[in-house]
Amino acid sequence: MWWEKKNRPGEELPSLRTMEAPPAPPEVETIMSEPTPKSPSPSLKSANLPVAGGQHTLLGRTAVVQGQLSAGEDLLIEGQFEGNINLQDHCLTVGTEGRVKAEIRARQVIILGSVNGNVAAREKIEIRRTGHVVGDLIGATVAIEEGAYFKGSIDIARDDGSEAAREVAAPSTVRTGA
Description:
This protein has 178 residues and is mostly beta strands.
C-alpha cells in the first residue's frame, strides 16, 4: 500500500535502544503555606473599607437573602437583603447595587446603594452621592454627601452615652444636590 514505507537496501530503522528518553522532571517538594491574599475588589476600595489585614465578607449582586445577619468581620452587600443586620464591632457597606430593607446596627455604616430601615452606628454613618436612605439614623457622626437622598430623622449619639437630636424629631426629608 502507499502508506507503508519500504526500506531501501542499506537503510535501517532507528532502534528503540538508540533513542534517548526525555529527562524526568526534577522532584520539587511543595510546602503548604498560608494562602496569598487576593487583591481587594474595586468595590471594597471605593467603599473605603479597611483592606489591609482585615476580614471581609461580600454578599454578591445575584444574592437575595432574608433573615438575621451577624458577623465578626466587615460586610459589603451588593445584592438584596431583608431582615436584621448586627455588626456591632465592624463596618457595613451597602454597595451601589445593594438593596437593603433592614434594621441595621454596626460600628460604621457606609451607604452607596439603597437602604429602607433604621440605621444605628456607634461611630459614623455615611450616605454617599449614589445612596438612597429612608429611615431614621442614630450615630456619633452622620455625613450625607451632595446628591444623596435621605428621608427620616437624625439623632446624634454623644460620647457620654446620652443622645441628642440634631434635626427635628419628626421625620423630615433632606435632598441634596442639583
